Amino acid sequence: MFTHISRSLVALALISAAALPARAQLAVIEIPAIVQLIQEVQTMQQQVQTAEAQLAQAKQALQIMTGDRGMQLLLNGISRNYLPSSWSQLTSAMQGGAGGFPELSADIQRAMLANSVLSSQQLSILSAAAQKQILAGRQSSALQQALSQEALTNASGRFVSIQSLIDAISTAADQKGILDLQARINAELGMLQNEQTKLQILNQATQAQESVDRQQVREQIIAGHGSFASRFQPTPAAPVTTSLQ
Fold first, then answer.
1. What is the residue range of 132's domain?
2. pLDDT value at position 22?
């Protein structure tokens, strides 16, 4: 476009020189000035072309850095909420209520059956308090075992999933895809760390409940023995009365 303009300027200058009347033949046409003008126009043309190239590069960079690459849909089918979020949910799973955690509840019941030593008939001859204590102990031990198994299984699966995301980085089509994958990996690592913290808190909660159960057993033992202050004091025998014949 600017080449056409420069050519038009030269042609216009020549035409103007040819069209001058005879009395104006002495007018001087400054050819260097025209040449300089043409050079300036060409320089402007180069500057515009450079600006257009930079604009195209900026648009391409913007397209690379923005937009949806669908990375949020990766690992969409993984279960991440396999641990109870409250003590009531934990108690329900421990007592056999499936609720929102059927796998955990089933693992607890299987662990209780596998770890039990006393049969149902042997339990039936014990007092209600003793049966309750044994059941609480079974549930607590089975809960810790089930939580550990669930955490191990899920952590192993999550590491495999994270590795698949890492492997996918080399197949990303652009920088935005790589950044999305890196953010997805960091999110998975953060959720995995959160699960580990949650598991530790649940273990602490079960240990606290075991401490409560032990304290109740001690108090029941004391209540069964009675008052030690009076237990070893002999009770005076009733006086024997004899009748005179």
1. 82-223
2. 47
Q: Coil, strand, or helix at residue 242?
A: coil
* The two three-digit tokens of residue 221, written as one number: 């033992």
Q: How far is it, in rounded angstroms, from Cα 139 to Cα 111?
A: 9
pTM > 0.85: yes or no = no
The candidate with the shortest Cα–Cα distance to 172, out of 56, 73, 64, is 64
Copy the structure tokens of residue 178. Answer: 């790589």
pLDDT of residue 47: 92
Q: Which two tokens stand for residue 189?
A: 């690592």
Cα–Cα dist 222/214, whole Å:
13
Is there a contact between 165 and 126 (Cβ–Cβ < 8 Å)? no
Q: Considering the domain boundaries, does residue 242 fall inside one?
A: no
Q: Which amino acid is at 83?
A: L
Positions in the chain short of pLDDT 50: 2, 20, 22-24, 244-245
Query: What is the pLDDT at residue 71?
Result: 64
pLDDT number for residue 148: 83
Instruction: State the Cα–Cα distance between residues 200 and 66, nearest whole angstrom.
Output: 39
Closest-CA residue to 196 (of 78, 33, 80, 64): 80
Check whether residue 61 and residue 145 sit in a common domain: no
